[in-house]
Fold this protein.
Amino acid sequence: MLRPPCEEIVQEFLPTFRSLIAKELIEKYSFSQIDVAEKLGTTQAAVSQYLSSKRGQRNSSKIKSMTKVKALASEVAKEIAENKLEEFDVSSSFCKLCLELRTNQPRRKSK
């Protein structure tokens, strides 16, 4: 089945990216889980699972080794903390993640 690259990235990496942002907002900027959930457009329960490593861990070692992705997560967390990002801007940061991951992944061969 032909799936767009963004769909694959969202399913495989978005939870890990959100996890990185959530952890930074809580640990560095003293956000509550509820505040993080509102900013990321998710639930407090999801944020709790990010913090306890029950969610967003599928590709965590791979994504955490990518310096640019970690830097992007830190940048997004900082901009959220400084109220520089609206909900649309947070979504567009996920598009930046998608582009970063796609440029760092080898192309699959067609069958």
